[in-house]
Structure formats: C-alpha cells, structure tokens
Design brief:
The structure is a homodimer. Chain A has about 475 residues and is an alpha+beta fold. Chain A is built from 16 helices and 17 strands. The first copy, chain A, has a seven-stranded antiparallel beta sheet with strand order 14-11-13-12-16-17-15, sandwiched between helices. Chain A has a four-stranded mixed beta sheet with strand order 1-2-4-3. In chain A, strand 7 and strand 8 form a beta hairpin. In chain A, helix 1 packs antiparallel against helix 2 and helix 9 crosses helix 12. Chains A and B meet through strand 8, helix 7, strand 10, helix 8 and helix 10 of A and strand 8, helix 7, strand 10, helix 8 and helix 10 of B.
Amino acid sequence: MNDPVTTLSEILGPKGWLSGTDAEPYLRDWLNRYGVTPLGVARPANTTEVATVVKACREAGLAVIPQGGNTGLCGGAVADRPNAVIVSLSRMTAIGEPDPESGSILVDAGVVLAALHEALEPHGLMFPMHLGAEGSARIGGLIGTNAGGSQAFRYGMMQDLVLGLEVVTPDGAVWDGLRAVQKDNAGYQLRKLYCGAEGTLGVVTRAVLRLYPTPKQRASALLVVSDFAAAVSFGAFLRDEAGEFLAGLEFFSDVGLALALKHLPDLAYQLETRGDVYLLVEVASGSPRVPLDEILNSALEWGMEQGLVVDGALANSGAQREQFWRLREEQPEGQRLEGEQLKHDISVPPGAIARFIEAGAKLCSDILPGVRMNPFGHLGDGNIHYNLSPPEGRADFDGKATAFAEALAALVTGMGGSFAAEHGLGRAKIAMAERNRSQAERALMARLKDAFDPLGTMNPGVLVRAG
Amino acid sequence: MNDPVTTLSEILGPKGWLSGTDAEPYLRDWLNRYGVTPLGVARPANTTEVATVVKACREAGLAVIPQGGNTGLCGGAVADRPNAVIVSLSRMTAIGEPDPESGSILVDAGVVLAALHEALEPHGLMFPMHLGAEGSARIGGLIGTNAGGSQAFRYGMMQDLVLGLEVVTPDGAVWDGLRAVQKDNAGYQLRKLYCGAEGTLGVVTRAVLRLYPTPKQRASALLVVSDFAAAVSFGAFLRDEAGEFLAGLEFFSDVGLALALKHLPDLAYQLETRGDVYLLVEVASGSPRVPLDEILNSALEWGMEQGLVVDGALANSGAQREQFWRLREEQPEGQRLEGEQLKHDISVPPGAIARFIEAGAKLCSDILPGVRMNPFGHLGDGNIHYNLSPPEGRADFDGKATAFAEALAALVTGMGGSFAAEHGLGRAKIAMAERNRSQAERALMARLKDAFDPLGTMNPGVLVRAG
C-alpha cells in the first residue's frame, strides 16, 4: 500500500492537495484555540473526489475533518491529531440556476453565503439566512452547525431551509438525497439530522435550499425601551400585530452601545434619549400595498402609550437604516476593542429573556463583582449573545471563565433553554453538554454516532466524545 | 417471571389495559388493511407508565406498537404479530398553559389536534397545523408521521413546529428533551429525527410546540384557472406578491369537482364558468391595517390580464368562505362515493406540478385507458393527492393498483419529489422505498434503527424492514 499522502496528492493534484505553508490557513480555528497540524489539506473539486478522499483516509486509518469557511466558534473544523486530513470544500462553489416557481436552488457545499445572496439578487429571490460571518461562512458549514442568525425566528434555521442533501458517508459512499420538496416522509428525516451534525456523520457536498421572494419594501426603527421586561412585552405585541412582516427584531443594551460608541468614532447615535435596552425592528413586505410605515408607527405609539417604549424613530433613508443596523452589528467589535471578553451563545424561551437577564446578572456579579454584562441578540427566538467584559479598570476575569460558563449553562438549562444555541458543541462544549444534558440524551447521540461512523474516523472528538 | 399480560394488567389497572372486545377499536388500521391481534392494548396514564410498559415488553420479548389516533393511512400503528402490545396514548391528553410571550405550549402526546385548536382559541393563539383528520389525529401520531397539511408551505411540517420532546426510548429510559427554544444546537437534532420516525425509535410522550398569534382578518377567493401551468405561474406570483399573507393555496380539478357535485347534493358551485383547474386562495393578516381584499383582488386582476385566471370571486361572507372551502374539502368524499379508488400521496417541486400532471396522466392512461385522474392538494408545496377512479362504467382497476403506484412513484422520484409526501411509509410503502431510494439511503436508515432499537422490538416492520 502506498503512503496515503502520496496517494492523495497524486489523485487530487497540486490544486487539490495542500501541505506545508500552503495548508496553514486551514489548520487553526477562527479563535485560534484548536488545531493540531494534520497530514495535509484536501481540496476536492467535486463529490467523487470527496468520496475518493474519504475512502483513502478510511483505508489508511486517518481521521477526516470536514471544513467549510473555518469561521466556526467551537473548534469543530480543525484536527485534533496528526493522523488526519482536513477536507476543505472551498473549491466546490457552483451555484445552480434558481427555480423561482419552486422556490429552490441547488448549491455546492463550498458556496460562501454572501456569494449566494449576490447570485440570487437579480432573480428577485433570497435565501433568508443572515449572520455576521456571511462573507466567509460556507453552506456546508452552515448546515453542519445548523446556523440560525437574525431571521431564524421568521424563516427558520438551516434545518428548516434545507430541502435536499448530498452527503459522502464515513464509508465513502455517496448518499444522493438531492430532492427538492418540503414534504418527503419516506423514512427518517436524514436531511434534518445532518443539519447540526457538525461533520461527524459524513461530508455534506451539495444541498437543495429553500428560497423566498425578496420583499419589495421595508421599514426600520430604532427604539429605546424601558427595560428587558418591556422589550419582551413589546416583542410579543409586534409578533401579534405585525408578525408576518417582521424581518428583524434585535436587541442590545446600553453597556454595549456605550462600548461601541467609545471605540468606533464614526458610529452615531441619533435618538435624544438613552436607556437600558434598545430594539432594532425591521419589517418587510412583498406587497407594495401594505402601509408598512403606518404599521410600524402605530406599534411604536402603542408601545409609548403603554410605557414600554421610551423613544424611537423610523429610519427616513437607506443611509439611516444602515446607521441603525450598525449600532447593533458593531456590538461584538466595540466589546472586542475594549479588551478581554467572554462569549456565551445561549438561548432561553423568548418570554423568559427578562428573567434570564436578571438572574444572569446576579450570578455573574456574585462570581466577579463589577463584571460588565453585555447581552445582545435576537429577541424573537430568545437567542442571547451574553458576553462579558472585565470590571472597569481590570484587564482579565481573575481565572473565572469556566465558572461563568458553567453557571450560565446551568441557568439556561433550568429555564428550558440551551447553552449552545447557534454555534454547536464542536470541541469546546462537549464537557458542558455532558454536565447539562441527561445520560439518556447523550446515550442516544453516542449510539447515533456509532451507527453512522463505527470506526470513529469522521471528525472525531467533535460533538460527542471520541469512543 | 409472571405472564406479561398479568403483569401489565396489574400495573395499569382496568382503565389502562384492554383486551377482548374492549381492545377491538385499536386493532385494525384506518383503512382496515393491517392489524394482527396483539396480546392487548395498554393505555398508560403518564410517561412513567409508558416506560413501565416498554420495559415490561422488553423483558418479555414483546413488540411495542405506539398508537395515537389510529388515523394513519399506511398501517404504521397496528401490530404485525400476536406477541405485541399496542401502546395507545389516548389517555394522555393534558394541555398546558400556552406561553404567549414565547409562543409555545407543552402538550401530552395523546392530545387530539382539534382539541388543541379549541384550547388555544381564547388565548388568541394558534397551532398552525390543519388537515382532514384533525378531529381524531393525536399530537404523538402527527409527530410520528411528521404531518404536513394545508399550511405546511407557510408554517412548516411537524418537524418545524416541535421545539422539545419527551420520548420513552426502546430500552425504557425516558429522554426529557422538553426544552422550549428554537435555537438549540447542543448535539444532534434528536427532536427533528423523532418527527417522521413513525414510532420505530421510541414512544413520544410529550412535546413543546410552537404557537403563532391568530390572524385578525382573512380573505378567501375561489378561482378558475386555465390549466395546471397557469396554476403554477399564478401560485408563484401570489407567493411573490402576497407570500406573507398566504394561509391557503389549494387546488382541485374539474374531475373532482364534478364528482363532489354529483354525490353531495348540498354542495353549491357559485361561479359562472367551469374550467380544468380551480384554486382556493386564502390570505390572512395579524394587522387590521392591511388591505387584504384589495391585495387579493389586484392579484386576481393581474391573473386575468395575463390570461391565467379565467374567473374568480372573493368570498363575501363567512358562509360563502365555508362553501368555497367545502368544494376543496369534499374532494375525497365525492370520489369515495363514486366507488373504488386508488390514493397516491406524492409531492413534486411546486414548479413541476404541471409537468407531473401531464406525464402522470399519460402514464396512467397507458396502464388503463379511460382511468379518471383526480389530482388535488397543496399548490404551495407541490403535495398532490393523486387519486384515481376507474374508467366510466367500470367498477375496478383491472388488477392494476400496483402498476399505477409503482409507475407514479418512479415518475415523482425522477422529478426530485417523493412517493410518500405526508403519510409516511408505515407497513404499506416499505417495498416502494426499497425500489425508489438508493442503497446508501436505506443503509443509513437501517443503521439508525439498529442503533436506537438493537432488539428490534419498537414498532417492528414499520418504516424499515424488520431485520
């Protein structure tokens, strides 16, 4: 038997097999916390080549590490051992013709999300998935992590947007499940199972995605609300009164606003009042006959009458809309520029957000008095990026990072929520899952992994502990 | 060891253990095609009792057959052997308090869908799942078959509406996954996998479901369109122009209308024109400020200008709306009263409906000249109830039932659709799945079944062939 590296480099050619310095950009995760240097990086050009690589690795006893844009935050797309091959989908970037009558499109797993958005624009169609990393995240990685983003509460997560899949299974077989229908109940919902499987059950190579028509008009408003309880009540009112139009329902706190304004001098805050909590509301419609501004304005008036909304303004131009959105989008950057931080990717039932904020603040202050809580995120689905900065004047967290993470995980678990809302488990949160999820649940997952990947060579050590 | 029947009847008491004539209503499937008499019917009162029954059956080597409303159409909820116990969830009917701020509710698996609708009404909330059997179908069965219905294209199927689950696994353990958040990526999406698993991986005992606010206004229209191609084009236009309001987008043919009018004398058709295809369009909005009638009317005008819509009327009252809907809803009954029929539960990409109708008609006419095709269903997701009546003057299909089923399954498979769109595989369609789905796909499903139920006692012979 040949040396596997020689075999792979011969099969894939110089474009398809990277090692040495060429391979370097693929070896460490986004936050530079994980990544053992593997034998090399395969960049197959098509599904057949992916299958060939998977088979060759299996024969040689090498681990296969599927990788998309490598922008994941839990270390799920880099190797944990030298005897591994990273399989980057970055050369598989074909985007099919969208089918407007069916609302679907066939894409390669290596397509960058922003490239898909761009390709769809001239067709008046959209793929309703928006998140910070859309300029680098690839479809396969979004499927592997079951990405959510800011429109998930309206259009769903990847699992709701994937109609069909093609996957190279751990034994190197190709499962062609590239059907293009929502209603397909011929057996287990494998297409849904692969969403969120983090590459541990196979390599996703292509997908049929669900598309929606692009709205013809939108309106956006920035609001100051009196507190988190008011944000929850006003959010529920909006879902009731304007639910079918909601395209964004984001929140951030005054802590985060202050940090963003401090570190990003070109940011402007244009309302007269400051408060504890801010909402960014966006509504959109496919019909030119809907009085969107009026609907949004009357919701604002109701909120003010009820004492929930303190101040607010509708964007009067595209430029102002962009300024409003930047206040929300620069939350991570403002906090990053402030120095050390701890990120927590959690969700609670939307109605429990205010209770969580109160209980979380107490927990964190008990662990490290003066720690600054900066929650922001998606009001509609209760997904909170609950990030911390050290107390004023301190540069670190006094070694309490794990204490915060564990306390918050236990809190959200007790509230019916999740300590891994959007980013998955990867390598980073397996121990946390073991502490916060039942033995029965972990056993089902271990059995599932074992059934699909009995040799344990597909992304080992990710999502479930290697056997 | 005691005789298992004695054990179970002692544990469950007279309300919880039925045999003899008391058990009879549970033993045969809805279409009376399947069902071997088992040892008895367990009707546990709670999750603990379900687990006890599953454990007792496991120890005694008995098959466990989970059953909801027993209204399934593929024989998936009755026994295939005497050494079995049917576990009916019909005594577990608790409905929790809805949480309007989170849009969720906790329910027992035995809750009848219509009872849930009724319980939610006073709260201004809805569970957006509507289908013919809603007066008898239970939540657990709807989950097991991943039900769709007429609003799936807008709100999703059960897999999109289930936030959390509680399941008794085949070894009698209880998996408590009753979380109440959309975003939970802590491991494999077990909650989605159990949707459509047809009770072969465990017994679903409780669920947290997603709720939506009830719309405050609706408008409905009945249209005659020139042909199926026009129906597809007009459907695409509606999704583009009024997508966020669409609450119904149903179609039926003149064959079906004629049968319904012939056999149901109280039905009235109120338009002046007849045509080949009819659409029932319903739009709804949470906002009182949306000019729904105007939006629907202008879509109709556009359709007429384009030559797609031949005739049409908006319902001018609740009574007229009901008459319009009855024309669609009585399609199965009209055909049933005509005599023998063959039902096919298929889906194709919505844009391919017209091509399917043409190709399907040719296939069927070749098999049995003069056979009457009666397609009706859901335009928005391409789900077609493609039912056949014998040629005029004939009472049967000349023994061609399997030939029709197989030809249609191959046709939709080739079009990227499904031969089991809504009803699942059950016992009825396993052979069809083996012919129309790849070896790779069937192998994944068999491995999955084996991993979760290594002894093969959980609903054996359903969805995958018993090992």
